[in-house]
Amino acid sequence: MELLIMAYALKTACARNIIGVIPYFPYSKQSKMRKRGSIVCKLLASMLAKAGLTHIITMDLHQKEIQGFFCFPVDNLRASPFLLQYIQEETESPRWFVH
Predict the structure, then answer these.
(1) Can you state the percent helix, strand and coil of the chain, rounding each to 5?
(2) What pLDDT, in 10s, does the model give residues 19-56?
(3) Which residues form a coiled coil (predicted)?
């Protein structure tokens, strides 16, 4: 909610670009229609657009198709390659790794 309020305040202050950095995008697993349910992720994307965001940077979306819910660019960064590299470098026996 605070992100929406801040984005709207920036929009009304005539900011040219409003970029939201959202490390964990909430409701990203609710991206498909379920019985008697709604697509909450699509609703959140709509709310962010109405608040004035022009770009989002997030990490590890549940599905890459979620980017299609937005009417502005979404950068979906992946942390897993860096985490795997760190674990491989910091442990002595990498035989239990699953690639």
Answers:
(1) 45, 15, 45
(2) 999 988 877 766 566 665 557 888 889 999 999 999 99
(3) none
> What gap in Å lies between CA 75 and CA 61, rounded to an integer?
10
Strands (DSSP E) contained in 1-99 are 19-22, 55-59, 74-77
User: Domains of the chain: which residue ranges?
Assistant: 2-96
By the 8 A CB rule, do 41 and 8 touch?
Answer: no
Domain 2-96 matching CATH 3.40.50.10420: the answer reads no
Contact yes or no for 61/67 (Cβ under 8 A)? yes
Residue ranges with strand state E in 5-67? 19-22, 55-59
Report which DSSP code applies to 55.
E
Tell me how long the chain is. Answer: 99
